[in-house]
Design goal:
With 442 residues, the protein is an alpha/beta fold. 33% of the residues lie in helices and 25% in strands. The protein has three domains: 192 residues, FAD/NAD(P)-binding domain; 144 residues, FAD/NAD(P)-binding domain (3-Layer(bba) Sandwich), CATH 3.50.50.60; 68 residues, no CATH class. Helix 1 runs parallel beside helix 9 and helix 11 packs across helix 12. It is globular.
């Protein structure tokens, strides 16, 4: 399908935080003025900020209230939305192909389509990496998508009702939850699930023994949050201990079974509800796609301009990009703040391409980290460069940390829906907060 207006065509593949922000900003700066055509491609109809998925899984957030429709966002922000899953690339023709879209019964309702591009940006994020460990795919649940988070919520809910109504004794791991991986997702999920379990008992499932609802986090590294500063890890440990979340660090999972996880140290960790959040990789379709360079976890290898190493017309941002980090042998960490920074830079990049100017280079800036532990606590560290200091970082927790955490989501919303809507919805949420249940009960 050729671009009918012959304008420069930018295709962004992936409507996650980085991809959607990029499409919206390009649409408002270039699409609105008819200087370029901007197209966003995603395999779903709605957007939900990925850091919220653990709350959806626990039921402490209703995904239907926070999701945003891509068609409406496209109209507001002057870009075009195309529903479909990209599965192939033809660099010679500068063309992408979208697989046919099927309904729930397997019937095709959107045929295969192709689209030509002048600039192509991959922003497809990441998915869980099971590392080929036996039993993970068969017996564990994942939280990569809104659908998976909703599925987990229903599974957790059904297990609770089954335990509440059964006449026989509970099985050893029937209500035990084991989370593989002590990164931010696993940690935050554990706190939300603790809150959800308490809510279920408060709402009437009082027959469930509280000591049977046990949450365990299993981590191969010697401490939780291994990629973040040790002092932040220590504060998080203290907060988790207060809500009786069990931490098994230094335990490597060797197999998952219906009854639980098997580790290299402690044998079986009983748990019929298992979540795998122990690593990431870029989507499998990216692996060596049409000769582009990828690494061992399928990330597209890019240089500091975010251009892929083998094609100057193709860029990648966020979790699906392996971007060198200056001054180290490492790549930029797969964090939301990196995707946000890279999206901002790529807006300038596209405009520079129009004007045949040299492209800007990406410099990762670490603004710190925040861990939200449901209503129990929020802890984090803000880097000195965010606070006007020359060096070091400042630990924050409690109300201040919670405010900063919420502000990150509001900043994302501002980028895609604007100040007026964010303000109105924030006020509405405050006014109606007392009328809503603290947990999605269906």
């Amino acid at each position: 399908m050729n671009n009918p207006e012959k304008l420069h065509h930018v295709i962004v593949v992936g409507g996650g935080a980085g991809g959607l922000e990029l499409a919206a900003k390009l649409g408002n700066k270039l699409g609105k003025k008819k200087k370029a055509n901007i197209t966003l491609v995603d395999c779903t109809l709605t957007h939900l900020w990925k850091p919220l998925l653990h709350e959806v899984a626990a039921g402490t957030l209703n995904s239907y209230e926070d999701e945003l429709g891509y068609l409406a966002l496209a109209h507001k922000n002057h870009f075009t939305f195309r529903l479909g899953r990209m599965d192939s690339l033809n660099r010679e023709k500068m063309e992408i192909s979208l697989a046919p879209t099927l309904d729930n019964s397997g019937k095709e309702y959107i045929p295969r389509r192709t689209f030509n591009y002048d600039t192509l940006v991959f922003a497809v994020g990441s998915q869980t990496n099971d590392f080929g460990i036996k039993g993970i795919k068969e017996h564990c649940m994942f939280l990569d998508t809104r659908t998976e988070a909703d599925t987990f919520h229903q599974h957790f809910f059904r297990n609770a009702f089954t335990a509440h109504t059964q006449t026989g004794p509970l099985r050893e791991g029937q209500l035990k939850i084991a989370i593989a991986g002590a990164g931010a997702t696993g940690i935050e999920l554990s706190a939300e699930l603790h809150e959800a379990a308490n809510q279920l008992v408060e709402f009437g499932l009082e027959g469930i023994p509280r000591d049977e609802v046990k949450i365990t986090i299993i981590e191969a590294a010697e401490r939780i949050l291994p990629a973040l500063p040790p002092d932040l890890s220590e504060k998080t440990v203290n907060a988790l201990k207060k809500i009786d979340v069990e931490l098994l660090t230094g335990h490597r999972i060797t197999e998952a079974t219906p009854e639980g996880y098997i580790t290299d140290k402690g044998g079986l960790v009983p748990s019929e509800i298992k979540v795998w959040a122990a690593g990431i990789k870029a989507p499998d379709f990216l692996k060596d796609i049409d000769g582009l360079e990828t690494n061992h976890i399928n990330q597209l290898v890019v240089n500091t301009t975010l251009q892929t190493t083998r094609d100057e017309n193709i860029f990648a941002l966020g979790d699906c990009a392996a971007c060198p980090m200056e001054g180290t042998d490492n790549t930029v960490p797969p964090r939301a703040q990196a995707a946000h920074q890279q999206a901002d830079m790529l807006v300038k990049t596209v405009r520079h391409r129009f004007n045949n100017k040299s492209l800007p280079k990406y410099h990762y800036v670490d603004y710190g980290s925040l861990i939200n532990l449901s209503r129990y606590s929020t802890v984090g560290n803000l880097m000195g460069n965010l606070l006007g200091k020359r060096a070091g970082n400042v630990m924050i927790e409690g109300i201040l940390a919670r405010f900063v955490y919420i502000s990150l989501y509001k900043m994302h919303q501002l980028a895609i829906v604007g100040f007026i809507r964010v303000t109105l919805t924030t006020i509405a949420n405050i006014l109606t907060q007392k009328t809503k249940p603290r947990m999605k009960l269906h």
